[in-house]
Every structure is written in C-alpha cells, then in structure tokens.
Design brief:
Layout: E1 8-12, H1 16-28, E2 32-36, H2 39-48, E3 53-57, H3 65-74, E4 82-86, H4 91-100, E5 104-107, H5 112-126
Parallel strand pairs: 1-2, 1-3, 3-4, 4-5
C-alpha cells in the first residue's frame, strides 16, 4: 500500500500565504509537496515529473490555472486529478473549471481541513 509520504502533490498559487498554508497542511498530513508560485512553473514541474495530484489556483500570472489544467488534460498524463483553488466563485467560473476537466473546485477563503479531506478523497479515488 502507498503511504502518504510517497505521494507527491503539486501546489501552484501566486499568493505566498495561501501556497505556504496549503503546503504546510499537506506536508503535515505526510504528502510530499512541490509548491510553485505561478502557472508556468506549475506546468514545467508537471511536465518534468507528473505528481499524483495537482492543486492549481485559477488566477496566476503567465499561465492561469485553467491554462495549466488544459495542458494537463492534453498531456501524456491526462488522468492526474486536479483540484482548482480560486477566489472566483461565480457559477460560470466553477462551470468553466469543471468543463475544462477539473476534478474538484474549492472557493477561497477555504478551510485547510476541508481542503485536506478533498485531497485525500481525490487520491483515494484515483488509486
């Protein structure tokens, strides 16, 4: 059985406080977290070594989270679960995320505990 410390999660958010909070919560749960500050870094990290799951902020400089999600779905690893994290809470924004291929969508501000539960659930389903 895979242990959490063997499971890599990519976290991309241009807000350092949020990125560090998510990284801390997931690391505390035993996940190996790679945290990056923007969409281009997220795509480069994914392309170099696909994680078990990606957490992507929607609004980032350069490539948006939606742009990165599109690239992931067109890549050689399209089934990697992706959780979108965004302050954009309009129904149309959420609909766009799911239409592009997001597996889940969490609205900021969020509960770190809820985020961890969603990550755990998504990874369990992916196995």
């Amino acid at each position: 059985m895979t242990t959490p410390e063997q499971i890599r999660v990519l976290v991309a958010d241009d807000d350092a406080d949020i990125r560090e909070l998510v990284e801390f919560k997931l690391s505390q749960a035993g996940y190996a977290v790679q945290a990056v500050p923007d969409g281009l870094a997220a795509w480069e990290a994914f392309a170099a070594d696909p994680p078990a799951l990606a957490v992507l902020d929607v609004m980032m400089p350069g490539l948006s989270g939606f742009d990165v999600l599109r690239r992931i779905r067109e890549s050689d690893h399209p089934r990697v679960p992706v959780l979108m994290l965004s302050a954009k809470s309009r129904d149309s924004d959420v609909d766009t995320g799911f239409a592009i291929g997001a597996d889940d969508y969490v609205i900021k501000p969020f509960s770190p505990r809820e985020l961890l539960h969603r990550v755990n659930t998504m990874l369990a389903r992916a196995r």
